[in-house]
Structure formats: C-alpha cells, structure tokens
C-alpha cells in the first residue's frame, strides 16, 4: 500500500479547498472596478384576463444572474439594468414574456396562464429552461408535492416520478427512505443515488437512515430534480451511476415579505392486521399440535396441561398485538420567513416534529433550522450563504430488536404481560426461554441521537452580461450517539447481569468549488453556454463503541458512571477512515434558433479509494435535441401550429462511474485474531495477511443510451414525456476464486457486467380549467428489465440471505442471461395425503435439521418437485421460485379545486413482482408454543381436512429440514394498487383575505396510506428490509418490518 501517495492526495485536496477560499476572497477584493452605469426599472405584473396581480413572478435580465421576484402586490424593482438589455418575466404555469429596455424607467406586463415549457429546472451546476433539456430530468416544485401536507418526503414523492421507486425501509417513526432510479446497476457496489443539497454533494450511503430525505423538513424545500439518464448524471462522474437527486431549498425574494405559521396534528393506527388465534382457540390448537407432533403421547398429559393453564386466572390472558400496539400521534410545528430587499434576501425556517409510533415506546423527534441569505455586496458581486442544523432522536426497542414485530404477532396469548422469560419457562412447556415482546418494548432503553450542522458560502461575480465566476466552500458535520440498556428482565440482559452499549459516530465533510461560466447569444440565433468547474471534497469518519455488563445496581444505563455498580467494561471498538476526491468538469450547451440543441460534458475524478495507478477516471457525455415544433414546415401546418406548443426529440449517451465500495479495498491488510507464533518455549501474538493487495481494483463504469420525446399541446394543457433507455454496467466488482496455492480463497475483481433496459412515460393534463373549478391529473408508467451479461469465468453465483426462520444458504441466484433479484429454492407441489419416502437425498447425519434418511413422511407433509427427474428430491432440485422485479410500476396524481375547496389524491402501483414472505414459518409454526395465523390454521392439513393447502401439524417436528431450504410456499404475489394520500383543503376566499390583510389561511385534512388493494397476506406489499449486498439484489423480502400506519392529519397554515 503506497501510504505516501495516499497522504499526498489527501493533503493536496485539503490545500485546494483552502485555495478555493482564497480565490473567493480575491474576487471580493477586486470586484469594485467592474461597475457600470445602469438604472432601475419598476413595474407591475398582472394576469391577462383577470387583471389580478401575479405574486412571486421572476424578473431577470436575460443572460445574467440579475433578477428579482414580484411582491405581494405584483410589483417589482430591478436595478443595474442597461438600455438594450432584455427583461425576462417568468412564472411556473404562465407564458414567459420578454421586454427590451429602452429609455423608459417603468415596464408593466400582462402574462398569460397555461404555459409550462419555460419552467426553469436545476440540472446540477447550472439551471436550464425545461424546453432546452436534452437529457432525462424530472422535477417537482414544492407546490406540486406539498398539496397533501406531507410530514416526510417519502409521502411527498411516492408515485410522482416515472422510473423512480421511493420506498420506506419500514414504517418506523423516522424510518429511512430508499430511492431506486432505473433499476439496480451493480451487484456488490452500492445502489443509492447521489444526493445534492443546494449544490453540496452528500457522502453516498446505502443506509436508509442516512438519506437526507428521512430527516429534512419538506417545507424547507423549493424543488427536487432527479437526473435519471447518464448524460445528465455524467457531470457527477464517479458518483452518478445510480442517478442524482438535486434538492433546492427555499430562498428569499426581493420585494416581498412573508411569514408562515403551520401547525399539524395527527393520529396513526395499524393500517392492516393479520388475524391470529385468540386465547381459547390457541390453547386447543396448541395442544392438538403437540399431540399430533408426538411430543405428547397420551390424553392424560393433555388434560394435565389443560388443567394447569385454566387453573390460572383467564383474565390475565393477552392478545399481544393489542397489548403492544397503540394509536400513535404526530405533531409538527413550523414558523418560516421569506422576503428581502434588492440588496438582501432571506429565507428562514424553524421546524419541530414529535411522532409516537404505533408500537409502544417507539418514536421520533426532530428539530430543524435553516437560513438562506443572499447579500449583494456590490452591483455585480453577490454573497450566498446557507446554514442549517438538524437534531433528531429515534427511540424504542424496535431499533435493536429487529424481529420484535414477528414476536408480537406470534406470542402466546396464554402468557400474562408481566411475565419475564424465566416465568414463561417455569410455567409453560417447550418455550425455549422466550422473551416477552411486551417486556422488551417496555424495559429496553434505547435512543439514537443525531446532530448535523451544515454551512456553505458562495461568492458570485458577474463580470459582465456574458461572463461570471463563482467560488464556494462548504462544511457538513454529522455526529451521532447511541445508548442502549437491556435489563435482567430480558434474557440477554440476564445472561450479562445487565448489558449496556454506548456508541458514537462523527464525520466531517468538506467541499471547495470554483466555477467560471460564459453565456452569450450570437446574431440572435446562436446561443452558447460554457461552464468549467474545479471541485475538491474530503470526508472523514470516526466511530467508537463500548459494552458494559455485570451491573449490581438498578440505575440502568446511567450505572456505567457509578463506581458502586461494579460494571465490567469490555474492550472498545474504534474505526477511522478518510476519503478524498478531486474533480474537474467542463460542460457546454449550444442551440440554434432554439431549434437544434447540443450538450456535451467531460468530468475527471481522482479518488483516494483506489490505488495510485487506478485513481483517475474520465466520464464523457453528449446529447442532442431537436425541437420539431420550431421548424418552418411544422408551423406551416395550421392545426399543428395552433395546437402543438412543443414537440422535441432527445438523444443522449454518457458514461459514469460507481465508487461505492469500501475505502482501502486495494490495500493488503493484516489481522491478529487469536493466532500466535512460537518462539522458544513461549508464544506471542502474531499477525497474518488476511487480504492480499489488489491494486488493479477500480470503479465500475455505467454507460447509457437514452432516447426521449416531449410533447406539449392545446396551450400546454396536455403534456407527454416518453423515454427509452439501455444502461450497461461493465467492470462490475465480483469475487473471483483463487487457486489454493495463493493462500487466499477469493479476490475482488472488475469482471462482471449487467444491463438494464426500460421505458418511462408520463402524461399530464389540465382536464378542466374554469374560473371556479379546475381539475388536473398526471399519470406515469415505467418498466425496467435487468439482465446479467457476464460473471467473469462463472456462469452463475449463489448467494444467501436469511428469510425469517428459513436458512439463508444459497437462496439468491445470480445467473448469466437472467435478471437480478431471483429467489432460489424448492418448488412445492402440494400437501401429501399418504405415506411416502423419497427424500433420501436431503441432508446428512452431520446435519440433523435436514436429516431425512430412512424416514417415512407423514400425512400433511409438503410435497416438493423432483425437477431434475432423478427419482429423489434434494438440493439439486432447486429452481427459480420468485422474481422480486415488477413488470411495471406507476402512479397517478390528481388535483381538483372548486372555489375555495381543494382535493388532492395520490396513487401508486406495482405489477408482476413477487414477495418473499419470511414470516410464513412463524405464522404456521405447527407444534410450537407460538401463536398461529387464523387463516393458515383454518386451512392446514388434518385427517378431517385432507384438502388443506398448508402444512399439517407435526410436519415441522418430523422433518424440520423443510425450512432449512427456501421453498415456494414463502413466495406470494406482491402486486398492489395503493392510495397513498387523500387531502382536502379549505382555503379562505380572497376577498376575506384582503379584508383581513393576510395572504393565506388554509385548513387541510389528510389521510396517508388510505387503502391498498393486494393479494399479499402480510402487513404491506411495499417491503424492503436491510441494506447489505444481498438485501439490495433481493429487496422484496418481508422479515417482520415495522408495519406501515394509516394516519389522519389536520394542518392549519397561516401566512401574512
């Protein structure tokens, strides 16, 4: 490992961040000499027809960054304008108007409603008119996603963007959010998109809890743009393989002043329940299973146990889902300000959120503060600052006891809620010292606190109408602290005489950037924009964890500070890593008469994650656009000219990288473990090489071809967007077997390849547009199909992931020519109704769980297919039994307004995907003390129910190997149609608002997770558990995730 080169790159990166700061200061000091003679222009913007003032319209000097926003009276004043320059008046949902400045000092404007193609979209290091885009970019403004008053961005975004899956990791308060864009592009490297907040790229993590969408307040966001095709993401190089999510927070505006106060309160409850057996039915079923499984051989013992149970007080029996679940509450309070003068603009928000989960003692609290400022230091020099602080706390045993919801669902109703595992074992048979889930939720003390400070400053200097330069520096400091105490009422705590854990995580993310840009229109037909960017990023991380045990006091977690508690301190665990990246970007946009569009970019990245010889990567992209509607032959057809506002064809190609691998993966590592070396008569600790050096490892490369069409018709009341793409990842990182003579088993190499193909279509329209009634709707469909093209010298790989109580051994199939996301196991044919013995091939005497040799299979035993026809059933008969990939996904969003009442509805759907229900075994659990699903038990095989479709009692005891191998009984159809949000808003009429001298007063009632139509038997078909490699390539596995709640929320919003 070349530490010298690594340290040189890191030192160089930090030095260049400092250099960026010095350049910014130089620009500030030298800017005064560029001032020009200018004047101010004032006026009023009104809507044509109604003559009402337009609030919040942008007035900008064309080709410059000089712009203002109209105030609450539709008025504006823009300074530093020269005669001959053009003022551009724009507003989302309205026609853009251009006015040339002459000798006048006042320009009033009338704007038509209806045109959307001049909407400005953030595309990375720049903004572009939507009509000029050549790549696949989807954007949502706050007006589009805040109409349902979401408390999380998952609620705001789900089903609204084609080709994008937005998923909660689970339904826990503060649960993480995962976004997948155009399928999985890798097997072993990360699959998360890059998040960029106000230009600051956040470190990429596959941990859903680290997604900024999980913690940022939706009210702080102005817009979200998602870059989907590689030609758009290529400007982010090695970080753009999985797409880019650009988050722009709200900014202040000149000429306006707005204070907003918002209060939200809601109640949540379990949206869907799984019917389980009550206490009396459970007891009958339990003892019947025990007898039929052979554990109880006679009725006398049955009667003895029955008497023992019923001699206790039946009123103490519990139904644990009712006991452990509750109606949760949600509260959110926000105060914000937006406004400013021509010189200073500000946007500030304070947000406080408190959510109690539907499981007792689980919750999430969040405090969020952000302030954005723009200060005009000189006529052509602007300082932009962005500061934010976010504090959140996740609490509850759920975060550390991941299987607790399965325990709640299946826990025996015969157990009083106060009993600990010891009392359960003393009073009931065959319990295995099971913990009481109610005691877990009540007794385990767990909290996860996180604090994140973010700040950045940017200087923008407009040299003249065509040239600008800007430089910025930013820092993000995340810190986390985890505390947990498990008392002696829980078995793990009892075994350790009390067990406490303390862990901290801290980070430092720094960024420096310098950008120069040129914009000019030549001869009124040639438009050219060129930008050059130099960027340096450094990320540092430290972790610490410590365990304490053997407490002799009842102080709980605080006992670690008390010398009298006598706790035992285990050896701590620590880690440290530092990653640096240097980048250069050159990008250009050209258009001829706004008709022919050309975009090209090149990015170079150097990353300390890789060896010095493979540290740099180069990522080009190019795109073409043809606005057919601007052609003369098109305009000569009167119907087309009248009804088609925009018809554009797009073609693009690009390359990006994926560096989401662990740092230092190229380096040789040493480990100590417990090995020793003998010297003379003694032994001393020894080190050994645990991983061989691998200097050739590099990033995966993804290339993509994208073709698209944009069509806007009937005064832009109908909008259609279509994209077709082929995305191929090569040099994919895979483990390759090594000869034994090497001394190592495997090494990671860039040898694989996978392809994704698909289409996306979005159709939106204004269906009705009357003075008192409007109705608009947008629907989207998308489909993605993956295919493994190469696995190096191998044709297939078998990986494993645990699925409930079933073994996770080799149940994930990755095979050349097949898609990713395949579940592999035995195909169940039905339930046996006669004695049979053809299972001699499964298991061995060394594996008693699978051992079936010389055994006769009883009635009610599952029958598996002999797929290879060799006359026996064994592991060679495994086949593909499930595919978690949907055939297509989509969404529908519709908005209606009648006078002062508004209705918003959001739907999403998925079709053709399978779900691996890892809870099946625990819900059936024949011959076990755990409770059973009423549905499974009703249709289980019995002698008097020979047509039962589920495994009969005793099958588990006779041949437990059935669940050691994944099988098709776990696989269910995961298709669904879900109504995510339903919101009704009552908005105060405008005449009353004017009389009261306020801007807006609105009361909104929202239902989240309204209904779900599905054949899936679990809580919810949208499941995603875990973020490990195998969990990413087989995401549709339900292993008792925290269930989704249905929320009823009231919100009052007041603006003045």
Automatic annotation (TrEMBL):
Chief location bin: membrane
A GO cellular component entry from the record: cell outer membrane
Domain TonB-dependent receptor plug positions: 130-244
Compartments in which it is found: Cell outer membrane
Pfam families (alphabetical): CarbopepD_reg_2, Plug
Top-level taxon of origin: Bacteria
Keywords linked to the UniProt accession: Cell outer membrane, Membrane, Transmembrane, Transmembrane beta strand, Transport
InterPro entries: Beta-barrel_TonB_sf, CarboxyPept-like_regulatory, Plug_dom, Plug_dom_sf, TonB-dep_OMP_SusC/RagA, TonB-dep_OMP_SusC/RagA_CS, TonB-dep_rcpt-like
Membrane topology: Multi-pass membrane protein
Family of this protein: Belongs to the TonB-dependent receptor family.
Protein name: TonB-linked outer membrane, SusC/RagA family protein
Originating species: Bacteroides fragilis str. 3988T(B)14
């Amino acid at each position: 490992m070349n530490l010298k080169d690594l340290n040189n790159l890191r030192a160089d990166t930090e030095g260049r961040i400092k250099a960026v700061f010095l350049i910014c200061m130089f620009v500030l000091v030298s800017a005064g000499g560029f001032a020009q003679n200018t004047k101010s222009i004032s006026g009023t913007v009104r809507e044509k027809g109604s003559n009402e003032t337009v609030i919040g319209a942008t007035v900008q000097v064309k080709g410059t960054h000089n712009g203002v926003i109209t105030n609450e009276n539709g008025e504006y004043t823009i300074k530093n304008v020269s005669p001959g320059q053009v003022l551009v008046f724009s507003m989302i949902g309205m026609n853009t108007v251009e006015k040339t400045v002459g000798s006048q000092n006042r320009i009033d404007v009338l704007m038509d409603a209806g045109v959307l193609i001049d909407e400005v979209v953030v595309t990375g290091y720049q903004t572009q008119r939507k009509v000029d885009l050549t790549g696949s970019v989807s954007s949502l403004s706050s007006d589009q996603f805040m109409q349902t008053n979401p408390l999380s961005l998952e609620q705001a975004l789900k089903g609204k963007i084609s080709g994008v899956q937005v998923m909660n990791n689970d339904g826990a308060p503060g649960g993480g959010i995962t976004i997948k864009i155009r399928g999985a592009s890798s097997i072993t490297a990360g699959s998360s998109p890059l998040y960029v907040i106000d230009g600051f790229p956040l470190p990429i993590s596959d941990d859903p809890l680290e997604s900024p969408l999980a913690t940022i307040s939706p009210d702080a966001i102005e817009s979200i743009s998602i870059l989907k095709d590689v030609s758009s993401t290529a400007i982010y190089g090695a970080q753009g393989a999985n797409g880019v999510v650009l988050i722009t927070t709200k900014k202040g505006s000149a000429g306006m002043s707005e204070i907003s106060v918002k209060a939200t309160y809601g109640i949540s409850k379990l949206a869907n329940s799984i019917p389980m057996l009550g206490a009396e039915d459970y007891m009958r079923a339990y003892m019947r299973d025990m007898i039929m499984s052979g554990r109880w051989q006679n009725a006398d013992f049955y009667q003895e146990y029955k008497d023992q149970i019923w001699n206790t007080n039946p009123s103490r029996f519990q139904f644990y889902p009712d006991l452990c679940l509750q109606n949760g509450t949600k509260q959110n309070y926000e105060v914000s300000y937006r406004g400013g003068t021509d010189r200073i603009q500000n946007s500030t928000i304070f947000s406080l959120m408190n959510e109690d989960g539907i499981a007792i003692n689980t919750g999430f609290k969040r405090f969020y503060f952000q302030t954005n400022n723009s200060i005009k230091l000189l006529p052509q020099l602007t300082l932009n600052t962005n500061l934010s602080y976010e504090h959140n706390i996740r609490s509850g045993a759920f975060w550390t006891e991941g299987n607790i919801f399965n325990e709640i669902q299946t826990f025996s109703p015969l157990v009083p809620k106060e009993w600990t595992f010891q009392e359960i074992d003393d009073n009931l048979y065959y319990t295995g010292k099971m913990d009481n889930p109610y005691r877990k939720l009540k007794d385990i003390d767990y909290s996860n606190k996180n604090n994140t400070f973010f700040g950045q400053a940017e200087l923008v200097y407009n040299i003249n109408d065509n040239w600008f330069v800007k430089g910025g520096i930013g820092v993000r400091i995340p810190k986390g602290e985890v505390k947990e105490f498990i008392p002696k009422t829980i078995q793990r705590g009892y075994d350790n005489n009390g067990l406490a854990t303390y862990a901290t995580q801290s980070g430092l993310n720094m960024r420096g950037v310098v950008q120069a840009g040129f914009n000019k229109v030549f001869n009124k037909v040639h438009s050219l924009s060129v930008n050059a960017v130099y960027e340096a990023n450094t990320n540092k991380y430290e972790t610490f964890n410590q365990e304490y045990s053997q407490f002799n006091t009842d102080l709980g977690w605080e006992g670690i500070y008390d010398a009298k508690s006598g706790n035992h301190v285990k050896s701590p665990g620590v880690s440290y890593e530092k990653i640096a990246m240097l980048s250069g970007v050159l990008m250009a946009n050209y258009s001829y008469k706004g008709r022919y569009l050309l975009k090209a970019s090149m990015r170079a990245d150097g990353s300390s994650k890789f060896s010095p010889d493979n540290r740099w990567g180069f990522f080009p992209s190019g795109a073409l656009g043809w606005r057919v509607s601007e052609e003369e032959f098109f305009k000569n057809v009167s119907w087309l000219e009248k009804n088609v506002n925009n018809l554009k064809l797009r073609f693009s190609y690009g390359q990006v990288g994926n560096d989401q691998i662990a740092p230092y993966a190229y380096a040789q590592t040493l480990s100590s473990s417990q090995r020793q070396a003998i010297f003379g008569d003694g032994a001393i600790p020894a080190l050994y090489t645990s991983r061989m050096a691998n200097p050739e490892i590099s990033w995966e490369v993804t290339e993509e071809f994208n073709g698209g069409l944009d069509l806007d018709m009937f005064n832009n009341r109908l909008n259609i967007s279509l994209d077709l793409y082929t995305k191929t990842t090569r040099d994919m990182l895979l483990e390759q077997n090594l000869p034994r003579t090497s001394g190592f088993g495997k090494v990671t190499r860039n040898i694989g390849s996978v392809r994704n193909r698909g289409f996306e279509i979005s159709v939106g329209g204004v269906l009705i547009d009357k003075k008192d009634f409007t109705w608009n709707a947008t629907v989207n469909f998308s489909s993605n199909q993956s295919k493994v093209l190469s696995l190096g010298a191998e044709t297939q790989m078998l990986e494993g992931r645990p699925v409930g109580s079933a073994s996770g051994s080799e149940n994930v199939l990755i095979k050349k020519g097949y898609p990713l996301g395949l579940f592999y196991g035995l195909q169940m044919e039905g339930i046996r109704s006669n004695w049979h013995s053809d299972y001699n091939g499964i298991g061995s005497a060394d594996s008693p769980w699978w051992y079936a040799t010389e055994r006769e299979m009883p009635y009610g035993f599952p029958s598996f297919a002999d797929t290879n026809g060799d006359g026996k059933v064994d592991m060679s008969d495994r086949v593909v039994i499930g595919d978690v990939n949907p055939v297509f996904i989509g969404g529908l969003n519709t908005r209606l307004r009648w006078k002062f009442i508004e209705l918003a509805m959001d739907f999403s759907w998925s079709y053709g995907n399978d779900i691996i229900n890892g809870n099946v075994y625990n819900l059936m659990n024949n011959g076990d003390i755990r409770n059973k699903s009423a549905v499974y038990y009703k249709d289980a095989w019995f002698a008097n129910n020979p047509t039962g479709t589920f495994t009969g009692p005793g099958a588990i005891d006779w041949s437990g190997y059935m669940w050691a191998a994944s099988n098709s009984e776990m696989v269910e159809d995961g298709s669904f149609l879900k109504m995510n949000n339903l919101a009704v808003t009552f908005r105060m009429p405008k005449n009353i608002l004017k009389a009261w001298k306020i801007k807006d007063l609105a009361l909104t009632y929202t239902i989240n997770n309204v209904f779900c139509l599905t054949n899936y038997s679990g809580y919810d078909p949208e499941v995603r558990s875990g973020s490990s490699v195998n969990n990413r390539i087989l995401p549709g596995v339900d292993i008792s995730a925290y269930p989704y709640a249905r929320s009823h929320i009231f919100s009052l919003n007041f603006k003045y």
